[in-house]
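User:
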Amino acid sequence: MGLPVWPALALAAALLPPAVAAEPLAAASAAAPASAPSLAEAAASIPPSVQLSYQVQARVVGIPVTAQAALDWRQDGARYTAHWTFSGPFGLRREQSSAGALTPHGLAPEQFSERGRTAHFERAQGRITFSDMPPAELAPGAQDRLSVSVQLGALIAAAPERYPPGTQVALQVAGARGADVWTFTVQGDETLQLGGQTLPCVKLERSGAASDQQLTLWLARARNYLPVRLRMSQPNGDLADQQLTRLRRTGSEGNAQE
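Assistant: Predicted structure:
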């Protein structure tokens, strides 16, 4: 999506056939489009530390699957960490982690890890390096597959009027084996009933995704534009829908608060 994702492709890797979730190797050299530099200079409003719990409803080759996911987001005003976990049937487990600095323009990832592979954002050298792939040029405002949904929310939270329906937001997004440009289109507002709450949300869709994957993301306006739902579907009918069940704020020591 984990919510993405909860980023989308991590969710796909956990639920959908490996061939569908594989990253295109050619993406390792992709750079951001011409509009990305101005977006990289946009103001951002960083959400407070929270723990988000989700239920995942999926259909894989026609078989319904129910699973759980969680996003642990922490920040101290200067730096952030994000950790996403997915727990599925038969002991299936997936994890992603992201860490980096906070700037007036949002998240500046420094390291992203998934499945024993790591991407390093080497800003001084202007590149992203990978465990077992050639490096990619680092574009302004680049994110990783875990940080991207939080960054989208931070950008919209700082200036909602800048992102009316039809607005396209393009960011370079790195996984553990390559980087590509992800383009999201703002679809407008939609109100969801999640976790016993009524949540007005901004709805975004990723366009131009590989293999015609459809990725939709909902950011809750009254919850600091955090990702409360992510839905990913495939042309063959496979889908994964991750929806918020609980959100808890965490204090400076990581203590949870309802």
